[in-house]
Backbone:
């Protein structure tokens, strides 16, 4: 803790002195930032040199779309001197874009309960494309970060690798059906449908297409209705997507190229299509909601499972580990609906690169705020005005925010010198209070340990059987009978928990930003000076604990 605090003093002192930010990415794999002159040729040229002309062409074709999708978030994120994102900022941006675009939780880009700058996003390429490919992006991350264009090329390169995996899985589908290579461009209509079904079976159930055997696929088909009850709907939807694609190419409807095009379209749309299942789960949970808290009492959660729902069988240990269980009132543990929906047990398809999970409804609320504000932070009044006019699936607008919620926002602003950072834990927590059914409760990094879908699939210990569920429900004490006044021990309108601890997902910029006033810059310097004072106090205490009495405390600024 003392070492971490000392690092914070050095970073803050460098910022106040106006010196260049030299070390934001140096922690990653022992990399030392090169001189600016070493940035060399265009990033796409470097990609071509390391990964080939086909990869360059694929990334170049996709990059423009990603730039458009990223632009509102990029504009609102804190950036370094050259209008670039730090490694943690790139990771945060990419996670949000892939989640909103496809419902993809990409391995290495999700936070998994850690801070966003705990690992470099370029490590993804080390695992899947080799150290040299990783170095192409790591050098730029270390030398001032990535521009919008470079972040878009990063995303486009990753997506092009997913395209290659699509081809591999399609070839494997022919193989496990004992259709030789000659059939790939000469398959019948029935054979093509069987190939596509097999492809989707492997994708949805996460079967390793490189090693799966024909015998395993045949056994899985006999159990598909039990394993995945929504298979018929999935099959019908894929047939509809194929119909749309082959309408434009009727003469080659069974060719390998057309089938590849169908499956790429499926990959693009699948996340949004399967999200309808997530909405259905949310609506079902809301039928058991405790007041308007965005929570379901644990006894009611398990009771729903006993009454016929195939969901809601996760153990308390699983719910706690993944930040889903609210135990702020030990007598009434509850399941946070938004955290449950966005948990890994609701992820379906998976590949070696990603899992397809529920799309965060909070993303649709954050984007209008980011688009309108267009910078990393805002005055509390601006945010209140926007949020009061911003509806969600369960919150009507316009509305008047409760005075207590406005006060919370003003407290966050006071903690940061008068403005509210949009990409910090406290504002995310405030959004959870404003939209408890759509925005997840953000836990302090390191206090949860979410598992990946693959890790969950390897062990079913987190799933309770009927006997376990009955024991859990029987273990809850019945609420006390209402007294003469009609009150009972069950809170009808429970207060949502609030943890007064800040973490900035992406560090605020420490230099003047074009268009900002001198007073704004001075305000930032004052906030940094305050942070240094707090850090020195922490050094003296040599311990880090929870802030007493609701006082705000920034334990981590994500600037390692």
Residues:
């Amino acid at each position: 803790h003392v070492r971490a605090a000392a690092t914070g003093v050095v970073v803050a002192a460098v910022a106040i002195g106006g010196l260049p930010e030299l070390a934001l990415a140096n922690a990653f794999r022992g990399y030392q930032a090169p001189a600016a002159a070493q940035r060399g040729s265009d990033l796409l040229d470097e990609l071509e040199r390391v990964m080939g002309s086909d990869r360059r062409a694929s990334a170049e074709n996709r990059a423009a779309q990603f730039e458009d999708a990223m632009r509102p978030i990029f504009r609102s994120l804190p950036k370094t001197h050259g209008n670039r994102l730090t490694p943690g900022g790139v990771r945060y941006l990419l996670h949000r874009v892939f989640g909103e675009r496809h419902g993809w939780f990409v391995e290495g880009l999700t936070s998994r309960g850690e801070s966003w700058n705990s690992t470099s996003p370029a490590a993804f390429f080390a695992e899947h494309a080799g150290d040299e490919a990783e170095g192409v992006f790591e050098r730029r991350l270390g030398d001032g970060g990535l521009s919008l264009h470079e972040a878009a090329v990063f995303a486009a390169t990753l997506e092009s690798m997913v395209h290659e995996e699509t081809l591999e899985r399609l070839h494997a589908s022919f193989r496990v059906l004992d259709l030789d290579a000659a059939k790939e461009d000469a398959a019948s209509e029935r054979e093509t449908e069987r190939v596509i079904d097999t492809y989707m079976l492997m994708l949805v159930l996460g079967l390793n297409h490189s090693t799966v055997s024909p015998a395993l696929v045949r056994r899985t088909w006999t159990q598909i209705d039990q394993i995945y009850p929504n298979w018929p709907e999935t099959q019908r939807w894929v047939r509809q997507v194929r119909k749309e694609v082959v309408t434009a190419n009727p003469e080659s409807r069974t060719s390998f190229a057309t089938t590849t095009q169908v499956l790429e379209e499926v990959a693009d749309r699948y996340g949004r299509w399967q999200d309808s299942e997530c909405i259905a789960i949310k609506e079902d949970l809301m039928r058991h909601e405790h007041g308007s808290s965005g929570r379901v009492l644990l006894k009611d959660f398990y009771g729903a499972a006993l009454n016929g729902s195939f969901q809601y069988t996760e153990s308390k240990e699983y719910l706690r580990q993944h930040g889903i269980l609210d135990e702020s009132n030990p007598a009434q543990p509850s399941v946070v609906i938004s955290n449950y929906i966005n948990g890994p047990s609701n992820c379906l398809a998976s590949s070696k690169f990603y899992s397809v999970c529920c799309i965060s409804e909070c993303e649709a609320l954050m984007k209008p705020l980011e688009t309108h504000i267009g910078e990393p932070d805002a005055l509390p009044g601006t945010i209140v005005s926007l949020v009061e006019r911003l509806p969600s699936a369960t919150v009507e607008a316009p509305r008047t925010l409760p005075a207590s919620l406005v006060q919370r926002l003003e407290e966050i602003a006071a903690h940061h010198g008068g403005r509210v950072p949009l990409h910090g834990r406290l504002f995310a927590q405030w959004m959870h209070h404003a939209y408890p059914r759509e925005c997840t409760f953000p836990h302090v990094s390191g206090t949860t340990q979410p598992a990946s879908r693959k890790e969950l699939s390897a062990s079913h210990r987190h799933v309770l059987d009927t006997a376990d569920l009955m024991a859990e429900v029987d273990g809850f004490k019945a609420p006390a009978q209402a007294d003469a006044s009609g009150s009972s021990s069950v809170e009808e309108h429970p207060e949502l928990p609030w943890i007064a601890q800040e973490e900035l997902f992406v560090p605020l910029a420490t230099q003047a930003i074009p268009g900002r006033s001198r007073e704004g810059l001075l305000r930032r310097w004052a906030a940094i000076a305050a942070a240094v004072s707090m850090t020195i106090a922490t050094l003296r205490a040599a311990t880090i604990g929870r802030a007493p009495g609701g006082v705000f405390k920034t334990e981590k600024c994500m600037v390692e």
Observations:
- The longest strand covers residues 553-556.
- Residues 173 and 543 are 56 Å apart (CA to CA).
- The chain is about 50% helix and 5% strand.
- Strands lie at 104-106, 295-297, 325-326, 334-336, 354-356, 377-378, 420-421, 501-503, 553-556.
